[in-house]
Every structure is written in C-alpha cells, then in structure tokens.
Design a protein that fits this description.
The complex is a heterodimer. By secondary structure, chain A is mostly helical. Helices cover about 80% and strands about 0% of the residues of chain A. Chain A is built from 13 helices and no strands. By secondary structure, chain B is an all-alpha fold. Chain B has 6 helices and no strands. The chains are: A mainly alpha, B mainly alpha. Chains A and B meet through helix 2, helix 3, helix 4, helix 5 and helix 6 of A and helix 1, helix 2, helix 3, helix 4 and helix 6 of B.
C-alpha cells in the first residue's frame, strides 16, 4: 500500500500542479475552519494553511524551491493585489481630506511607534538583525510588508508571519485596550486597527461599526504608503 | 475582466519602472498603488467637475470592472500570503532560537501602536470639538469619553 502511494507520489511531487492544489485546498479548509469558529481571529485561515502546507512540505521531504515552483502562480498575485489597494484608497479619499488634521498626526505617530518599538524590542531582547529588520514593516498589510522586508534585507516569510500574528493580537486585544484608555470614538478605533493590525484587525473592527470600517481601510492604505516610504529610509540610517 | 487585469498589472509595471528610473527605495507595487489611486481620483474629478469627486462606485465602464476585480483580489488576499508564509519552514531554527524577542516584539509593538494611534486621534478629535461647543465634552451626545 505505502509502496503504491510512493510510486504514485514520487513523480507527482515535483509537478507544480500538486503544490498549487495543496496550497488552495489548505486555504479553503482554513476558511471553513474559521467559519466553524464563528469567524474568530484566532482561527486565521492564512495561519492554519501555512501550518498545514508547511507540515506537508516538511513531511514529504520536499524542498521549498520545489514547492514554490507550483505556488509561485499564487505568489505572483501579491503585486496586483497591492496595486488593487489603490481602489479603496481612492474611494475613501474624501474621508482623508475631511479628516486630514486628525488622521495625519495619528497615522504618523502610530506608524513610527510600530516600526521603532518593533525593531527596538527585538534589539533589546538580543534578537538578530535579520529578525529586527523583518519586524520593522510588520504592522502594514502583508503584501506591502513583505515587499518592504525584501527591500531592506529582512526575511519576507518571517515578515508575513509576524504581520499575520500582529493582526491577530490587534484584533483580539485592540478594542479592550482602547476602551481602557478611555478612547470611545469609532474613528479612532478604526484607524488604530488599520494602522497597527492591518487586514486582520480591520476585519474585526468592521463587524463593530461602519465608520470604524472606513477608517480602518484608510489606516491600512495610508500606513502601507507611509511605512513603505519610512522603513527603507530608516533602514539606511541603521547600518 | 481582462481590462481590469491589464490596469492592475500595467500600474504594477509602471511602479516598477518608476522605481528603477528614479532609484526609489519604495517597492514597485506600492508605487503602482499610489499611481492607480491618483489616476482614479483625477478621472473621477474630470468626470464630475472640479468640485467634489464623484463616488467611484457610481461610475460605469472600466472603473466598474476594476472595482470588481480589486474587491475580489482584496477579499481573498489571505490566500496570496500562503506560499511566502510556507517559507517559514526554512526559518524554524531562527524562530526557535529567537522566540522571546519575536513574541515580545509582535505583541509589544502592536499594542503600543494601537494605543498611540487611538490616543492621538482621540485627543485631536476632542480638541477640535471643544471650541465649537461651550458645553463640557461629557454632555455632548454620542461621546462616551
């Protein structure tokens, strides 16, 4: 039986199609799992898919290069989806203009805090330079975070995982913490979720309030732009 | 749909070209995002006069198919991170060795950033509201702070 499986698997394992199917299937399963859990941010489909696919890759002794030969078709869409974020950014532009006096400083302060504290904490606790650089852009939406990480010499895979975990932290603890700090305005809640926790936190806050959802979308788009501008400049200073 | 795809990939290419040509430190797709947003705003403004831009959702033509394609990509964005995320299997050693700075960095900086963003926004909104109303902030409807 195992012999038969091995005879079937060995030629298949190197074809791109298999890894495309495995990746898609793991993600579809992950989405079903999250629906089962009532949309809980703990059950991130990205995280569960990465764990499942990673386990399959490790257990079958497949090299990452072989896996990526199939998965690159999905990976390629990271570029177009980043460009696509320009559409909601343009649609929400009237919000930006109307609230620029409050959004601007809050965005700048929150963005710098995320970058500097992320790198600073890793550095203080004795983390390596590669981890610190991978941490720098982790607050922004994952495709931008990964592109920035690549640009400054971080590890994009680490950044992707940090970004997703950071989003989960923000989704789970963000609202409670802001409530404790006496922040009640939904615009502030939304912007904070978008700036610090990108898509995962934005999806959570969007279920609470419509205005918060719009400001979260703004936070994602604007912080993506700002971080992509600031981090490479800061990284050049930190040699 | 081909038009929408062409727009997205075209702007990505334009972003990459701009990055190369001007030696910008910003990733090409981010420049593409900015260029696309700018182009959409200019288009909306040209169609709706110089005043307030027409909401993009009210428009027909390529912008509509672009909106649909963009929404489809964005709502399934999670899938697109999986291939790169699986690259973590090559970094398991690093994760094991540096789990403390990593965990502290993710939790600490995310919470700090939420607090700072939320508080700064909150203070500015409150300061902006005060001069308009002489009543104390607590008395304003819908403001629980």
């Amino acid at each position: 039986m195992t012999e038969a499986i091995r005879n079937l698997w060995t030629p298949l394992a190197t074809t791109p199609l298999v890894w495309l199917v495995v990746t898609l299937a793991a993600y579809v399963l992950g989405c079903a799992l999250q629906r089962r859990c009532g949309g809980s941010p703990y059950a991130s489909p990205v995280l569960s898919a990465v764990v499942v696919v990673g386990a399959v890759v490790l257990c079958t002794g497949t090299s990452y290069a072989t896996y990526f030969a199939g998965a690159q078709f999905i990976n390629f869409l990271l570029g177009p989806v980043t460009v696509a974020l320009g559409v909601p950014l343009a649609e929400n532009f009237t919000y930006v203009r109307r609230n620029i006096a409050s959004i601007g400083p809050a965005l700048l302060a929150g963005s710098l805090t995320a970058i500097v504290s992320g790198v600073g904490i890793v550095w203080l606790l004795g983390g390596s330079r590669g981890v610190a650089l991978s941490m720098a852009p982790k607050a922004v939406t994952t495709p931008i975070a990964m592109a920035v990480s690549q640009q400054i010499g971080g590890v994009p895979a680490l950044t992707a995982v940090f970004a997703i975990l950071g989003g989960i932290v923000a989704a789970i603890m963000g609202e409670q913490m802001l409530a404790r700090l006496q922040v009640a305005d939904w615009r502030a809640h939304g912007l904070a979720a978008g700036v610090a926790g990108s898509g995962v936190a934005a999806a959570q806050v969007a279920t609470r309030d419509e205005l918060a959802a719009a400001f979260a979308a703004l936070g994602i788009g604007l912080n993506g732009l700002l971080t992509a501008l600031i981090v490479p400049l800061l990284a050049r200073l930190w040699v | 749909m081909p038009t929408a795809l062409l727009i997205l990939v075209g702007f990505q290419l334009a972003g990459e070209l701009a990055r190369e040509a001007f030696g910008l430190p910003v990733p090409g797709p981010v420049i593409g995002m900015f260029l696309l947003a700018a182009a959409l705003l200019i288009r909306a403004r040209a169609a709706g006069g110089a005043a307030a831009p027409v909401p993009l959702r009210a428009r027909q033509g390529p912008t509509t198919s672009l909106r649909i394609a963009a929404q489809m990509l964005i709502s399934n964005m999670g899938l697109l991170f999986v291939p790169a995320g699986v690259g973590i299997v090559a970094e398991l050693g690093m994760l094991q060795k540096e789990w403390l700075p990593i965990a502290a960095g993710i939790v600490g900086s995310t919470l700090l950033s939420i607090a700072v963003t939320g508080l700064v926004m909150h203070w500015i909104l409150r300061a902006a509201h005060r001069p308009k109303h002489d009543a104390p902030v607590e008395a304003l409807p819908g403001r629980a702070s």
